[in-house]
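Pasting as-is:
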Amino acid sequence: MVEKELRDEFPIDWEDDDYVTRREFFRFLTLASGGLALGSGVIAGFATFSRSGRSMDRKLVGKATDLKPGQSMNFNYPRPNDLCILIHRSEGEFVAYSRRCTHLSCPVSYQHDKNRLYCPCHNGVFDVVDGSVKQGPPPRPLPKITLERDGDDLYAVGITRGVEA
């Protein structure tokens, strides 16, 4: 009885109410697509700005005397699951890089005899001096870990992302 009274007060042609015109359908698609594009842009912008403004903590990596020239040591920076590698180059310089290959995130290793960083997943090769790609499918250089030396102590203080090739 209540339903009949409502239909009498609000006369709606229910068959026409369910019909969606082509214009209404494309208007909905346009608005939905615009909303998704705007939302994606906002998320991408937020991710970019939050990453660039992030400061890194200073973390003790090890002692300079612990590594002889030509040796390497693994460590984690800035988070416990972020794999990195410290290398004491034959020239006496210390360099550090992320161990995640820029192709598919396989762990890279230091090969002293060939003076390179090697990714075994797809034969990717990186230069020890600057982390640039020398061979294989990796699209970018390895992110470089910025080091500071305080006496005998080596500290990781930041990350410099590689630029796309």
